[in-house]
Design a protein that fits this description.
Helix content: 40-55%
Structural class: alpha+beta
Radius of gyration: 18 Å
Largest sheet: 3 strands, antiparallel
Strand content: 5-15%
Order of helices and strands: EEEEHEHHH
Shape: elongated
Strand order of the largest sheet: 4-1-5
């Protein structure tokens, strides 16, 4: 699997990969695809390779996970300043996940507050 950024809107066959956001990938979107198919899209000038796309998706997935945990926290799991308690978030993480830092918490929390 490798990261690609679409230069054109592309419909990815389900036989290649089932995508969470649907099979249509819009121009400018980053997506992870099997290299044989992704490289075919590059050769057809429909996509460009983007090795950062995998990292970016992993970052988005982690931020989503942290946000979901924050949404489940009880009132007593927030600091006096009103932020989610980092220790409470870390207790709710899957066992194999890296601990959340205060900076990560702040970034996710700011995005959640802006969305309200």
């Amino acid at each position: 699997m490798a990261g690609y950024v679409m230069r054109s809107t592309v419909i990815v066959p389900k036989t290649v990969a089932e995508l969470e956001g649907g099979q249509t990938v819009a121009k400018g979107s980053a997506v992870t695809l099997p290299e044989s198919y992704g490289d075919h899209l590059v050769a057809e000038k429909l996509a460009r390779r983007d090795d950062d796309a995998v990292t970016n998706q992993a970052d988005r997935d982690r931020a989503d996970m942290i946000g979901e945990i924050i949404e489940m926290l009880g009132d007593d799991e927030f600091t006096k300043g009103g932020k989610p308690d980092v220790e409470a978030i870390n207790k709710a993480l899957p066992e194999d996940a890296d601990p959340v830092t205060a900076a990560e918490r702040d970034s996710v929390w700011a995005a959640m507050e802006a969305a309200d």
